[in-house]
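Support request, please re-run this one:
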Amino acid sequence: MTVWLQSVGEPVNRKRVRRLMQLMGLEALYPKPRLSVAVPGHRRYPYLLRGLAITRPNQVWGTAITYIRLSQGFVYLVAIMDWFSRYVVSWAVSVTLDAAFCLEALDAALRRATPEIVNSDQGAQFTCPDFTGRLEAAKIRSSMDGRGRALDNVFTERLWRTVKYEEVYLKDYDTVPMARENLGRYFGFSNDERPHQALGYQTPARVYATA
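Re-run finished. Output below.
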């Protein structure tokens, strides 16, 4: 696309073309990173949230992994969000898909509060004994999405869409530290400064503080 535009007299570079294609939702068809690969032998848990009224902070946390493109390659991002307040309790970035960064995010979140339920997908990072063991030790109930049911974790999936369209797609992260710095700034803004219509135009931090 960049070469073709330059051939017809448009002075654009590859980064600008990539950013504009992302904003328009245009992309090549290619195999994407598989983020929710189950491991035989890992324990799976039923989905507990169908029909559940979420009425207070720390009743349900949701967690998931997404990937963030860099100029060369990509990194993985995990976040733990309180579903009632939309507050991002913790997050972490990694260049690999092992469970370590998910455990880092979980440990940071549990130092702040203890939820009643943590909902995740059935990926190996969330079904491994280290992750589920931490939840069991804290007497937290595990809930897991059904296979192929992204809407089971709808609030976390909406978070990924917002992060990418309002932050990631507007910038070109060259390095992992750059990604981490900018994501940290964005989550700080989202938690502490942005009012949400669904929260009566309060910020997530203000609503979460009622816990």
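The longest strand covers residues 60-69. Strands lie at 60-69, 74-82, 87-94, 117-120, 141-144.
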